[in-house]
Amino acid sequence: MLKLVIPIAFALVAAAVAMSVWRLLRGPSAPDRILALDTLYVNAIALLVLLGIHLGSALYFEAALLIAMMGFVGTVALCKYLLRGDIIE
Amino acid sequence: MLEYLLSFLILAGALFTFIGALGLARLRDFYTRLHGPTKATTLGVGCLLIASSVYFSSQGRGMSLHEVLVTLFLFITAPISAHLLAKTALHLRIESLAPPPQGDQSDTREAGSYTEIITPPRPPERPLPEERTR
């Protein structure tokens, strides 16, 4: 059962990544692109967790946690730059 | 039994992630697009992380609680980044599908009949971020 479900899940998350990349390239506005980057990092976490289950290795959670923290900081920094014209005032 | 639960959680998680990205790609203005990634995708990744936690706890090496950390972090940060993104979009005056706020008596259209994008009336002049000089 798991052997069947995991490839399907990989395909669905990969399609999600492809659609976020499309929105990232297409725009049309800067917040749209930031939102696409935000979705991309969440999808990267999903892919890493799936890979961890697939390989039966608990090694990937540190990477997932790091991506979660850095992605959030990146989103906040980009929004802050558009809002205030500066990141740390 | 456990395998069916895991399969269900993984499939539900992947589906919600997919639907979130579909909303991001297909919806028509920024404020509706904001819904997909911030709600559906967060739920999907939450499902996947629970599945992973159950899977590694059932391997006989004790409870696996790393995933709870990631879940907690994602569930705290998703609303914050959504709030900041909405604030940024309003600040940049991104166009919305919604009608302008009340006070405009000439707008007699019914709810649900909005199809074209409406430019809101411009508020008193203030420079956009890219026009500012420091």
Task: Characterize the structure shown.
The complex is a heterodimer of chains A (89) and B (134). Chain A is mainly alpha-helical and 89 residues long. Chain A has one domain (2-84): Orthogonal Bundle (Helix Hairpins). Helix content of chain A is 84%, strand content 0%. In chain A, helix 1 (2-26) runs antiparallel to helix 2 (30-55) and helix 2 (30-55) packs antiparallel against helix 3 (61-84). The longest helix of chain A is centred in the middle third of the chain and has 26 residues, at 30-55. The radius of gyration of chain A is 16 Å and the shape is flat. The mean pLDDT of chain A is 91. With 134 residues, chain B is mainly α. Chain B has one domain: Helix Hairpins. Chain B has helices spanning 2-26, 30-33, 35-57, 66-91. In chain B, helix 1 (2-26) runs antiparallel to helix 3. The chains are: A mainly alpha (89), B mainly alpha (134). Chains A and B meet through helix 1, helix 2 and helix 3 of A and helix 1, helix 3 and helix 4 of B.
Quick recap:
The complex is a heterodimer of chains A (89) and B (134). Chain A has 89 residues and is mainly alpha-helical.
List the topology elements:
The complex is a heterodimer of chains A (89) and B (134).
Chain A lengths: L1 H25 L3 H26 L5 H24 L5
Chain B lengths: L1 H25 L3 H4 L1 H23 L8 H26 L43
Low-confidence stretches of chain A: none
How many structural domains can be distinguished in the coordinates of chain B? 1
In percent terms, what proportion of residues of chain B is strand? under 5%
Mean of residue pLDDT values of chain B: 82
Mean pLDDT of chain A: 91
The main β sheet of chain A shows up as: none
Assembly category: heterodimer
CATH topology term of chain B: Helix Hairpins
Strands of chain A, count: 0
Which chains have the largest interface? A-B, 51 and 53 residues
**Structural class of the helix and strand makeup of chain A?**
mainly alpha
The CATH architecture classification of chain B is Orthogonal Bundle
* Overall tally of domains of chain A: 1
